[in-house]
Amino acid sequence: MSAPITFSSTSAAFFAGAKTALTSVFMLVLAGTYIGIGALTHDFGLSSWWLAISTVLVWAAPAQVILITTVTTGAALFEIALAVTLSGVRLFPMVVALMPVLRGPTTRLRDLLLPTHFTAVSMWVESLRLLPAIENQWRIPFCNGLSAGYMATATVFGFVGFYLAAGLPPLLAGGLLFLTPMSFLMSTARNARMMVDKLGLVLGLVIGPLLTVLDVGLDLMWTGLIGGTLAYLVHRIREAAR
User: Which of 46, 56, 71, 192 has a CA that sits 20 to 30 A from residue 65's CA?
Assistant: First the structure.
């Protein structure tokens, strides 16, 4: 096995993470996604700075789309907060999976607060891929740099999409929003190594569309619960049979 990657300082690890973000394929995915969200924000009559602030505070494209559409339709504040919160619940399992990779013997709770907020699809996929090869003490600053690079990309291209909105076809703007889920699907398929991962992915692809056709509420949540549980049970049965 090769020696773990190390850095000379915390800032060196941070900037290495930021450089990795700005040279990864997810930078292009986020750029396209936030051009679409910027155009959507413009069309709903909100300001570009409102979009920038919501990007930093919410940091989840689907939740931002929900926020944009509910704020402008006059929904009650409680309803808006509940809808955004339910959308963000999908990130909780990602946080749970990432924390053991980041946590070391001397890691303090406050050191994990920023990575917890930064956890999103792009950051999560790349962190699980890259962090195991990095020496433990540099993982958090590297992760923060990676996340800051992605967030900066999203913020900048949100402005680009906002000011391009007048000339951006609505169909193209809508299509750009699908870049993130499609990239997540491809990255998950590429990184699936164990049978339980592959089975969970296949079950999700089958159950998700079925629940959508049946018009089941919270279909994404139920897809994860049902598909993940079934995959785990099959995995346990196989392990017990060995």
Answer: 192
